[in-house]
Amino acid sequence: MNKQQTIAQTVSLSGVGLHSGQPVTLAIHPAPAGTGIIFVRNTQGGQEHCPATIHHLRPINLCTTLGVNGFKIQTVEHVLSALAGLEIDNAFIELDAEEVPAVDGSAAPFVELIHRAGIVSQEAPRTYLKIIHPIKIQKEDRTLTVLPSVLPKVSYSIEYAHPLIQRQTYEFEWTPAEFQRSIASARTFAFSKEVEWLWSVGLGRGGTLDNTLVFSDTDLLNEDGFRFPDECVRHKILDLIGDLSLLGIPVIGHFIADRTGHSAHAEMVKAILDQPSAWILLNAEDEEHPIHCHKISSSSLQHYKKQSQPACPSA
Ligand SMILES: [Zn+2]
Question: What is each CA distance from 243 to 51, 100, 238, 249, 261, in whole angstroms?
Fold first, then answer.
């Protein structure tokens, strides 16, 4: 799809935040072409708008948090992953509390929500950021690399000293159909020995076996088992797709991750933006030929988004 997309109508769901444990309602609204994804927090004095871009990233502590003017929006990665996975370019995400609902710990409920709304094509063409030179993030022996590639792709490896995880690798061809089939329903995971520590630092308060895979020393505590034998590594890809959407523009490259997480994902977004010689912008022209794009200048990236922010339709 080479036109920008939004949703056809407002849809909402309610739940509790994974870390805050607070009840929250999330509504996704359509937005005009060029808006990008903008979080909207209802406050007593009105509304705060926070574009879902790396410029609004707050310190990462097991989840991705954005913030503006003293307000934060926590655990944004799963709903952002659903939007990016389904190629939704423009939407307002309205919240009445500070954390996105955990729902079942995956992106599947957000995918269902977007389909319930309906996806609509907009007049404006989509602009892609295409990687032309490799970029590598390294912390000790953990790496996240992006290589030039004809189509977007992710190869992710994880390794945990747990008999039900050990080393898992998954290769993901980044298309909406494949995202829905292989990635969207993979749930977040935690280790039971970490739970008391999580609570002591104010995290994981909304975590239950209904929204998290929880591992004991030797087993999985969820009675219904895995959705995929390699559900954990698939969830890491889900997180990466959500975090990469903080570029504010769809990216074409082959991401290769080895035992990384949210911090490295965010470092990669910053590294890409810091190295404009490593990519070009392509303006998609032709719906029939998804790769048939024409090059536009890098300096137009900041002009890709509308300068004036459109108003969220909700009061
Ligand atoms: Zn996650």
Answer: 13, 14, 9, 12, 10
pLDDT of 53: 96
- Cα 152 to averaged position of ligand 1 atoms, centre (Å): 20
Q: Say yes or no to pLDDT of 289 above 80.
A: no
Domain 3-124 has CATH 3.20.20.30: no
Contact 105, 129 (CB under 8 A): no
Mean pLDDT rounded to a whole number for the chain: 89
For residue 280, what pLDDT is reported? 94
Q: pTM to 2 decimals?
A: 0.91
Measured in angstroms, how far is the CA atom of residue 211 from the centroid of ligand 1?
11
Superfamily of domain 129-280: lpxc deacetylase, domain 2 (3.30.1700.10)
Cα–Cα distance between 52 and 57 in angstroms, integer? 8
**Ligand 1 center from residue 188 Cα (angstroms):** 5
Q: In the structure encoding, which two tokens stand for residue 45, read together?
A: 């004095």
Which residues are found with C-beta within 5 Å of the ion, ligand 1? 188, 239
Determine whether 262 is an active site residue: yes
Sequence ranges of the domains in the chain: 3-124, 129-280
- 56, 235, 262, 265: the catalytic one is 262
For 60, phi and psi rounded to 5 degrees? -90, 130
